[in-house]
Write a structure and sequence with these properties.
With 474 residues, this protein is an alpha+beta fold. It folds into 3 domains: 3-92, GIY-YIG endonuclease (3-Layer(aba) Sandwich); 100-222, no CATH class; 283-465, UvrC, RNAse H endonuclease domain (Nucleotidyltransferase, domain 5, 2-Layer Sandwich), CATH 3.30.420. 40% of the residues lie in helices and 20% in strands. A hairpin with a 6-residue loop joins strand 14 and strand 15 (429-430).
Length: 474
């Protein structure tokens, strides 16, 4: 496929979410991918210098598109097409990554987990020693998006992720993500989940496993691309309940149907924004754009992102993530340097004040001059957080001459990146006005800092209540 042909296809490509298929001369898929915006994704192929992608492009004769209503549908449809066609370049271009599969154990209360190595017989850490069989759905190319999808689905179809049984209801039960009875050592009666049987008539308690198994099956159907059939089945069931005058159950089912539709219509799940290649000879690259926006002479080769997490001041924590400019195949790319990540447990008495917490984190960070110093700092927040960061920097003499630029990234009411504040500018700059590569980089660093902070907060919270949950589940 020539550059001119690729540019022509790009102009007519849909702007919606969906999957794209690079087809060879025999009309067979060479590579299948997904995208939130198909046109933008195809446009990125014109700038690539990856030898494998260039080889695939040279063999491609056309590009087919299949639109979807949401990113989740794109993720699932991509999985179905890769499973069906097994395109050679999907495997070749995975590097050291592996496809993900969702496993469903065959326990009494089936567990759901993600794995890279599906086999017919497996022993998962959530399973009992007697049960070792599991069924799998996949492959999925984006593990991060897959985990997020499962988190959404679990809110609608609760299931258990506890590694072992316990005496009291787990935290997930109290927030509606677990039925509760499935992981208790002594299962406590729940009228909605008990079925009349010979055992119960003798004084015992028998749980009706059908609702739990139905939740598992519904999740499996959605991940297998049967969402439409599932919705029709649920709608038919809702009508039947209405005719039987079981209105409470009908209303509950209607709410579930609406939640499924809302997730597929509005969920933003593909959060793993690709690392943008920055050519050293490309004048409009991210590196140069960052220099222009920040009005600095030197490029930002070491960027630090900060966020704090707490609930009403409890278990308050801070996190620092680091992205560095790394050379690879003649190109410079911003990538996370996880060896440089740092966690901070907040000790400040003002732990309910995000600004005070950020001050503590930055102060403790710069009390370590042996750590590599940043060329740019990104903090989560607005003017107050920007001022706090600048104040901390001014307190360290060895930082004053370095003049480290600071960006505060503000989110909207839907917790999406909205605008940035920069020292020296009175008004905020909307993210929409920034070059796409710069905007995506800032959002990615901010999102990674948030993810790292939340992960640390959850670990402390679980330790406090001695709650154990599997790391590979949703």
């Amino acid at each position: 496929m020539r550059d001119s042909q690729l540019k022509t296809v790009t102009k007519t490509a849909p702007r919606s979410s969906g999957i794209y298929l690079f087809m060879d001369s025999k009309n067979k898929p060479l590579y299948i991918g997904k995208a939130f915006n198909l046109r933008n994704r195809i446009k990125s192929y014109a700038k690539t210098k990856d030898a494998r992608i260039q080889k695939m492009l040279s063999m491609a004769k056309k590009i087919d598109f299949i639109r979807t209503g949401s990113e989740i549908e794109a993720l699932i449809l991509e999985s179905q097409y890769i499973k069906k066609h097994k395109p050679a370049f999907n495997i070749m271009m995975r590097d050291d990554k592996q496809f993900g599969f969702v496993g469903f154990t065959n326990d009494k209360f089936s567990k759901i987990f993600i794995t890279h190595q599906p086999v017919k017989i497996t022993k998962h850490k959530t399973q009992s020693p007697k049960t070792q069989t599991a069924k799998f759905v996949g492959p999925f190319t984006d593990i991060g998006a897959l985990k997020t999808t499962l988190r959404y689905l679990r809110r609608i179809f609760p299931y258990c992720t506890c590694r072992q049984t316990h005496h009291n209801f787990c935290l997930n039960y109290h927030i509606g993500k677990c039925p509760g009875f499935c992981c208790l050592k002594q299962q406590k009666p729940n009228p909605q989940l008990i079925t009349a049987s010979a055992e119960s008539r003798k004084g015992g308690t028998t749980y009706n496993l059908q609702p739990y198994r139905k939740n598992i099956k519904d999740i499996k159907d959605i991940l297998s691309g049967k969402k439409t059939l599932l919705l029709k089945k649920l709608e038919k069931e809702m009508v039947t309940l209405g005719k039987k005058q079981e209105f409470d159950k009908a209303i509950e089912l209607r709410g579930k149907i609406e939640k499924i539709k809302r997730v597929f219509e509005n969920a933003r799940i593909i959060q793993n924004i690709p690392y943008y290649d920055i050519s050293n000879n490309h004048n409009e690259g991210t590196l140069l754009e960052l220099k222009k926006i920040l009005r600095i002479k030197q490029p930002s080769r070491h960027i630090e992102g900060y966020d704090v997490a707490n609930i009403q001041g409890k278990y308050a924590v801070g996190a620092m993530v680091v992205f560095t400019l790394q050379q690879s195949s003649g190109q410079a790319n911003y990538k996370p340097d996880k060896n440089e990540y740092r966690k901070f447990k907040i000790y400040s008495k003002q732990s309910s004040d995000d600004t005070a917490m950020l001050k503590e984190v930055l102060t403790r960070r710069f009390n370590h001059p042996e750590w590599p110093l940043p060329d740019l700092i990104i903090v989560d927040g607005g003017k107050a957080q920007l001022s706090a960061a600048l104040k901390v920097i001014s307190n360290f003499k060895f930082l004053i001459s370095k003049q480290i630029p600071v960006i505060a990234l503000t989110k909207d009411e839907k917790h999406r990146g909205s605008k940035i504040f920069i020292a020296g500018k009175k008004t905020a700059i909307p993210l929409s006005r920034l070059p796409t590569s710069v905007k995506n980089l800032l959002i990615q660093i901010n999102s990674e800092a948030h993810r790292f902070a939340i992960g640390y907060y959850r670990n402390l919270h679980r330790k406090k209540f001695k709650i154990k949950t599997p790391t590979s589940g949703a």
